[in-house]
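Sorry, explain these tokens?

___
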Amino acid sequence: KSRSASSSVPGVSRIDQESTRTHGYFVRVGYHRTKEGAWRPKHRAFFGDASHGGKDKAFKAAVKWLKSKQS
């Protein structure tokens, strides 16, 4: 079984949910602890396939956004 490109980039997850017609990449970075003690991402964003012109372009946009938040 081959690994997807997103599995090689920490913080980037692929979402393919047919029931809600949701396809794209979800990015999370900069975790912090809440008052309740739970860990939550400080920054998060979704990059949909349809709104970015396809799977590859959505992935590239997700990685670019992730890098901008890390620097």
Observations:
- Strands lie at 12-17, 22-33, 39-48.
